[in-house]
Every structure is written in C-alpha cells, then in structure tokens.
C-alpha cells in the first residue's frame, strides 16, 4: 500500500439483512462506509439470482452513498445503461466482467461514450487481466475477484494479491487513475494482504455484517 493511500470500504449489500435493509444501510453509512457494492446476478452468467431494479430503487431511496452496480449478467450491454438511468449518486460506477463479452473493448468504449462510469471485474482465473492496458483510460475501477463470482461467504483464494499487484503495475505504467478494489473473503488478514499489494478499495460482506459494531470493523479495515 502506497504511503498516504486512503482506503475505501464498500459493504456488499447481498450480505445485509434484507428484512431490515434500511437499518443495515443506515448503520454502514453511519459507520464510515464509502460506497455500497450491489451484486446483480441473473442466474445465467452465474448460477444464482440476486436482485434487480426494484431493490436498487429502494436502496436509492434510503441512502446517498455512491453505488457500485456489479453486473454478473449475460446481457451487460442491455442492463448497464438501464441501471445508470436510475439516477445513481455521484461517484457511482457500473462494474462489468471481462469474461462475459466477446468484444469487450467495443462495449467498454460504447458505454463510456454514453457517459457511464465503468468498472472492470476480473475472475480468479484471469491472471493476466486481459484488455486492461488497452482500456485503462476508459474505466474508474478495477475489481479483482478473490473468489469465484455467484456466491457469498466464500474464502479468499490465495494468490489473488498477485493480480492486485499487476493491476497496480498497469495503472502506474499507463498513467491511469482507476481505483483497485478486491471482492471476496475480505477480513482483517486478507484485507491487509491486498492493501500491501496495492488495493485501494475493500468490498466486504459477511465479515462486516456478522459483527455488531460496523463502525469498528470499517475503521480497522481502513487502517
């Protein structure tokens, strides 16, 4: 972690208590969360279904935090503009996957030209971070998946920090300004590991929501 780097923490809403969603969102906001991470799963790109437009609208009605709309969908080109048009808070991002588009450079440029702030997600097997050098100037965030997408509560895959370090290297060599987020199995130990490798943002789910004191967890993750 570079000296002076400000770490951001993004609670993963999928791990919240949906029976008391407003309460949990208020608690993480008061606890110092920087933005919210929303996993949108379609049951095709990944083998689970999560939530869609009605839930995102409900979240927008009870928080002003920026959103990271993480599209784990097979029709990214269709859904990205529709989520963007919901009127997301400033600094929000639509994150799409490298793997689910046969012509990723074309899609990224097309969405960027529509004014959509984009993130680019990489699965654990994408060790070389394909297209990142080419697209670095079009994105706001790189999301390194440290688990396989589609399920919450998984353990951090060892070696994920190497892809974080590569994302940092490409960022520096290209003169880009994207943030580097890590999603999956984040706790105090794995958070420290990826921060040391260059991560600037930590997406945290079960580890955060299983504690009573969200402020304490968020504060420790930012250290």
Give the radius of gyration: 16 Å
CATH evolutionary superfamily: Aldolase class I
Secondary-structure element sequence?
Answer: EHEHEHEHEHEHEHEHH
The domain count comes to 1
Classify the helix fraction into a percent range. 25-40%
Would you state the CATH class? Alpha Beta
Kindly report the average pLDDT value: 95
Q: Supply the helix-strand structural class.
A: alpha/beta
Distance between the termini: 11 Å
By DSSP (H or I, 4+ residues per run), the number of helices equals: 9
Q: Give the name of the CATH architecture.
A: Alpha-Beta Barrel
Shape: globular
What is the fold-level CATH name, i.e. the topology? TIM Barrel
Unreliable segments of 5+ consecutive residues: none
Largest beta-sheet details: 8 strands, parallel
Note the beta-strand portion.
15-25%
Any overview of this molecule?
The chain has 223 residues and is of the alpha/beta class. The chain has a single domain (8-221), classed as Aldolase class I (TIM Barrel, Alpha-Beta Barrel). It is 36% helix and 18% strand. The model has no long low-confidence stretch (mean pLDDT 95).
Quick summary of this structure?
This protein is α/β, with parallel strands linked by helices and 223 residues long. The protein has helices at 21-30, 53-62, 76-84, 104-113, 132-135, 160-174, 188-197, 206-209, 214-221, and strands at 8-11, 36-41, 67-72, 93-97, 118-122, 141-145, 179-183, 201-204. Strands 1-8-7-6-5-4-3-2 form an eight-stranded parallel sheet.
């Amino acid at each position: 972690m570079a000296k002076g780097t400000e770490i951001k923490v993004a609670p993963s809403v999928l791990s919240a208590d949906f029976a008391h969603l407003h309460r949990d969102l208020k608690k993480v906001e008061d606890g110092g969360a920087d933005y919210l991470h929303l996993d949108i799963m379609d049951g095709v790109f990944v083998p689970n279904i999560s939530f869609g437009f009605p839930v995102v609208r409900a979240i927008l009605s009870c928080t002003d935090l920026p959103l990271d709309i993480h599209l784990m969908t097979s029709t990214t080109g269709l859904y990205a503009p529709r989520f963007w048009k919901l009127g997301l808070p400033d600094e929000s991002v639509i994150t799409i996957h490298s793997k689910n588009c046969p012509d990723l450079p074309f899609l990224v440029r097309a969405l960027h030209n529509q004014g959509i702030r984009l993130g680019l997600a990489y699965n654990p097997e994408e060790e070389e971070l394909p297209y990142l050098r080419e697209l670095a100037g079009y994105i706001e965030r790189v999301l390194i998946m440290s688990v396989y997408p589609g399920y919450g509560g998984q353990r951090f895959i060892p070696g994920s920090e190497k892809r974080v370090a590569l994302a940092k290297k490409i960022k520096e060599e290209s003169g880009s300004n994207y943030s580097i987020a890590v999603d999956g199995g984040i706790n105090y130990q794995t958070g420290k590991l990826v921060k040391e490798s260059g991560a600037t943002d930590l997406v945290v789910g079960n580890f955060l929501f299983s504690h009573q004191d969200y402020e304490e967890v968020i504060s420790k993750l930012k250290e």
